[in-house]
Amino acid sequence: MIDHGRTDPRAGADALVGAFAPGRVNLIGEHTDYTGGLALPLAIDLGTTVVGRSTNEPTVVLRSADEPDEACVPLDIDDPVGVTPSWARYVAGIVHELTPARGFRGEVTTTVPIGRGLSSSAALELAVALALGFDGPSTALAELAQRGEHLASGVPCGLMDQLASASGIDGHALLMDFTDGSVEPVRVPDGVAIVVVHSGERRTLVGSAYADRRASCEAAARAVGPLREASLAAVATIADPVVRRRARHVVTENERVRRVVDALRSGDIEAVGTLMVESHESLRVDFEVSTTALDALVDRLVATPGVHGARLTGAGFGGCAVALTEPGALDEGWTVRPSAGARRFAVG
Ligand code: GLA
User: Fold this and answer.
1) I need a labelling partner for 307 at 20 to 30 A (CA). Which of 74, 221, 301, 318 fits?
2) DSSP-assigned letters across all residues of 207-260
């Protein structure tokens, strides 16, 4: 990084720092991360940038190009969820977890559509953490940002979004195993496009419904042991029919992730598409996180010539669908490229 502090005409000024973190889209492996399962997201070529410098003020002050009001977070913040404006809660969650020694003043810009299910909040969290001086492995960065997200939003999210943003690899999807936090790159073959299309519905009730799904998975694990190792025969013995269906989604979804990885490696894109559609069905029927708008969108995408498969992506309850297509098959949404993960960069 260039140390502007040494050449800055304002002698003694701190160096300008730049940090960038991408959003993510999940190809398959939905609602598996918090059960120690498998997922296959990728970091995308849309992301959030923070540029600024340390100060001797007792606050982190960030101005966003997309928000009317700035975030001004005291270094000793103890209750991120009460902070206003609401976007500042994510900054506050990171300040709370990172406990930076010095203040910071900077600007935030983003190319991630905000609140659309492409992990704009994870991108903000990671970019802020890096700008404020986080130094450590990508898993630790992701875990810190996840703790910040829990504090900021109150939603007990898993690690997938933050880990995808932290550990993205150009041209690759990321096979994540949440039993040990490992990430294995899986090349996305040339000649396929990944397109994300919004359903038109903002995600609603995502907090309580997400926590409810997570609680059902925990109930299932109490009945049959870790879902990652559970067989469908064991799942069939779960007495509560709702808990049984939730568990069946998780067990079958882990298997679909394995099969998608095999299919990508052997170049069988049609098989990937079929498994994506099966994932959507499982999320619709067994996990019950789809909506009428998402179902209609997936049906329409799958019926479009050149589309190999599509499914809802992210938590559900609104938000986006992801489609795997021949290049140019869809003229809507965001065509995203698997991209590198969060990083600091030189400013100047
Ligand atoms: C949200 C959460 C993730 C994950 C997905 C569902 O994006 O933040 O941790 O659980 O939902 O797969």
Assistant:
1) 318
2) HHHHHHHHHHHHHHHHHHS-TTT--HHHHTT-SSHHHHHHHHHHHHHHHHHHHH
Best residue among 25, 28, 31, 163 to mutate for probing ligand 1's pocket (most ligand atoms within 8 Å of CB) is: 31
Token code pair at residue 332: 């809507």
**Does ligand 1 lie within 6 Å of residue 31's CB atom?**
yes
Task: Report pLDDT for 13.
Answer: 81
- 15 pLDDT band, cuts 50/70/90, is very high
Full strand arrangement of the beta sheet holding 182-187: 38-39, 172-177, 182-187
Determine how many CB atoms are found less than 10 A away from the CB of residue 11. 8
314 CB less than 6 Å from ligand 1?
yes
Strand partners, 173: 186
Q: Is 337 helix (H, G, I), strand (E, B) or coil?
A: coil
Question: What is the spatial distance between Cα 319 and Cα 198, in angstroms, rounded to a whole number?
Answer: 6
From the list 76, 161, 240, 286, the catalytic residue is: 161
Residue 160, ligand 1, Cβ within 6 A: yes
Cβ atoms 53, 111 nearer than 8 A: no
H or E segment and range at residue 52? strand 41-55
Q: Catalytic residue at 161?
A: yes
Distance between CA atoms of residues 308 and 323, nearest Å:
7
**Pocket flag, ligand 1, residue 161 (CB < 6 Å):** yes
Give the global pTM. Answer: 0.95
Tracing tokens 């995203």 back to the chain, one arrives at: 336
- Write out pLDDT tens, residues 209-235: 999 999 999 999 999 999 999 999 999
Give the separation between CA 26 and CA 163, rounded to whole angstroms. Answer: 12
